[in-house]
Specification:
The protein is an alpha+beta fold. Helices cover 54% and strands 17% of the residues.
């Protein structure tokens, strides 16, 4: 019998308690990975946003619009290689009003040039450009609603209400896929011209924001200042940012919540460590007499210390493996797929980060060792006579 084998056999002395402890560790690891994945999925769009893509909006607030003529002025800025513009439409399907997805009215000729990470086949893109009421949708959105190329879609909008006899009817002309985690695969894009011709007088020739691609991403900050200087003396001033900063500004209000979630995930693992420590301490108290017998036949204090720390590490490792095995089907295949299909605007890419998995294992092992130190040290310091005298 080896020392490691003896440590494992000690775990099996009270199988019910050991199984419950392993399940507790597994649940803690699963909760930790779930929370970390939510936080990372929420911030991934900002983290991986292209550095060469800039966004120009109204200086006061995102919801206020800019004159369309600003687009040409941005296009003339030296270093800007492509420009497009969009309006938030706020569309929804009348029969499924509670299911949210992004709906944008964009320039038909330049949108997929600036957003080159949204890939549409040349044939579908050309068909979209030729159809004034055409639309391109993300592959996740198409799967969610069962839409395919050629389908006609009727939408409602709280921002751009339609007359009863003239509903917003679009025809799906293409389905895009994403080559970047920053892209929401649940977005619908249609022609800005189609929106503009049906807008009220106050909304005519207005754009929500202007998006540009620049030649040198290292000079992005310089380009944003240059763009904003153009409009400093005009009736509406602008605020330009690189896409990463633009996305991060949306999450600024949630930063405290995200930090709190990170803290909660660590607290969960800390509680798990206390559970393991309690289990090990109970086992040590129950086996005090046996430890005295082991010392009497020649086992050293270091052996007892190793037994106890080994039991704790094995318990933590088994629980971590069980939690990780449950995480992929539950988080990625279950919750992740649902969030991508139903909340793609907020969670465009919901996957477990391998770094979170490594961190979970490392923290569990560390906490397993730390939580076993006190009972292990106490057992190693036992005097043989006192341990043998202890009544079980």
């Amino acid at each position: 019998m080896t020392l490691a084998g003896l440590a494992v056999r000690n775990l099996l002395r009270n199988r019910f308690r050991t199984i419950l402890t392993i399940l507790g560790v597994a649940i803690a690891v699963l909760a930790f990975l779930s929370i970390r994945t939510v936080v990372q999925a929420w911030t991934v769009a900002a983290e991986v946003a292209p550095k060469d893509r800039l966004v120009t909006r109204h200086k006061v607030t995102f919801v206020m619009t800019l004159p369309k003529r600003y687009v040409e002025q941005v296009r003339r800025v030296e270093g800007v290689k492509a420009v497009t513009f969009c309006n938030w439409f706020g569309g929804r399907v009348p029969t499924r009003e509670k299911e949210f997805f992004s709906t944008l009215a964009c320039d038909r000729d330049t949108a997929f040039t600036v957003y080159s990470d949204m890939v549409v086949s040349p044939e579908q893109l050309e068909a979209y450009k030729q159809d004034r009421s055409g639309a391109v949708i993300g592959d996740t959105l198409a799967k969610k609603f069962g839409w395919k190329v050629g389908d006609r879609i009727t939408l409602e909008s709280g921002i751009y209400p339609a007359a009863p006899d003239q509903p917003w009817v679009l025809t799906v002309r293409g389905i895009y896929t994403a080559t970047s985690k920053a892209v929401d695969r649940s977005t619908l894009l249609f022609h800005w011209d189609y929106l503009n011709e049906r807008s009220t007088a106050a909304g005519k020739d207005q754009v929500g924001w202007i998006i540009s691609r620049v030649n040198d991403p290292r000079r992005a900050a310089e380009y944003t200042k240059q763009i904003d200087r153009i409009f400093e003396t005009q009736e509406i001033e602008t605020l330009s940012q690189d896409e990463r900063s633009f996305n991060a500004s949306f999450m600024a209000g949630f930063s405290a919540v995200l930090r709190a979630l990170d803290l909660v995930s660590l607290v969960i693992l800390l509680i798990m460590g206390l559970v393991i420590g309690n289990t090990i301490a109970m086992g040590v108290r129950e086996r005090t007499h046996e430890y005295g017998a082991l010392r009497a036949i020649g086992f050293r204090p270091s052996h007892l210390f190793g037994f106890i720390v080994g039991e704790s590490v094995v318990t933590g490792l088994l629980g971590s493996l069980l939690g990780a095995a449950a995480a992929y089907p539950l988080i990625e295949r279950g919750m992740g797929r649902w969030l991508e299909e139903n909340m793609g605007a907020y969670f465009p890419f919901f996957r477990i980060d391998p770094r979170s998995m490594v961190l979970a294992f490392a923290l569990v092992l560390l906490l397993s060792v730390l939580s076993s130190l006190i009972p292990a040290i106490s057992a190693a310091r036992l005097k043989v006579v006192d341990a043998l005298r202890r009544v079980q």
